[in-house]
Amino acid sequence: MFRHLWGEIFRKGRRPMLEPGDVAPPFELQDHEGRTVRLADFAGKRVLLWFYPKAATPG
Amino acid sequence: MLGISFDSVAENRAFAEAQGYTFPLLSDPTRSVGLAYKACDSAQEPYAKRFTYVIGRDGRIEQAIDTKDPGGQAAALLRSL
Q: Which of A55, B19, B30, B65 is deepest in the core (most CB within 10 A)?
């Protein structure tokens, strides 16, 4: 199974991610002002979701 | 646009102020959202991977961008908009 998994990763040449067409998992988190933000708040709109490693790092 | 990391609300507030960001920076301390979006492999991981998703109006993933290079990520984002 692991061999298969690694084969998949290297065959695609990248780390596993959600794929285009997958349903975006819903979430509810606090923003930097302490406000609650839900993915559902943006229903009907395009959303750009940017994961970054650490506050105070560039990019 | 939404930023998301495993930092605390206070750390993200300081980051947003320092960078002048006007979009929300979300705090995911339990990594539950990071795990759901494969931006980490376990709840113990210290940092999220530099993954960017464009979510379409239908609630489905439109684009999935993986880059470790911030400049490249910015360029990829600009191309996607």
A: A55
